[in-house]
Amino acid sequence: MTAKEFWDFCHLPENETRSFELVRGEVVELSRPTKKHGRVYVNIAFALESYARRVNIGYVVSNDSGVILEEDPDTVVGPDVAFYTDANKFDDMHPKWGEEPPILAVEVLSPNDKVSKTNSKMADYLKNRVKLVWLVDYEERKVTVFRPDWRLDVLGENQELTGNSVLPGFSCHVGDFFRMPGETTPSPAPPVPPSA
């Protein structure tokens, strides 16, 4: 199936409440995200949108908004959250699926995600010009950072996540992705005094 045929397939009346991706021409149906998933998406998108507004560069999309990663055979995926720099005005955004990849793609793990499938998706992003990928695991409360050179960093909830050279000046606490508005950020452990 091509990306154009996939667009038509996704917009059939019987598919309006279902989610799909196209992986090398094959349609893959996705499970509906959980409530915790949705909360994590919002927290990530909020942190990235706050950054975009502060630096006045780029924009954030969520809700599995499609991007064509490969052609012939076609691959159309929807990152859970993505950061783009290909448009400066709302009217300049692609009206359907983007053809320019995001500079950052964020995937939030589901409890039923298979490791092999997840690793394959990370590889697809990186080999198709996505500069940075965050894999967020809300059960383990950690973020794995993937780069095109396949150098990985695994950050726990008490660590700072930065945008490296891709999002210069971006920084947030990993634990903020897993918080509700009424929760407070845990205080860092007090420093250990030097031994006498």
List the topology elements:
Blueprint: H1 3-10, E1 19-23, E2 26-30, H2 35-55, E3 59-62, E4 67-70, E5 75-77, E6 81-84, E7 104-108, H3 115-127, E8 132-137, E9 142-146, E10 152-156, E11 160-162, E12 171-173
Parallel strand pairs: 7-8
Antiparallel strand pairs: 1-2, 3-6, 4-5, 6-7, 8-9, 9-10, 11-12
Organism: Fimbriiglobus ruber
Protein name: Putative restriction endonuclease domain-containing protein
InterPro entries: Nuclease_put_TT1808 (IPR012296), Restrct_endonuc-II-like (IPR011335), Uma2 (IPR008538)
The CATH class label is Alpha Beta
In terms of structural class, how would the helical and strand content be classed?
alpha+beta
Residues in helices, as a percent range: 10-25%
The count of domains is 1
Rounded mean pLDDT is 88
Low-confidence stretches: none
Shape: globular
Rg to the nearest angstrom?
Answer: 18 Å
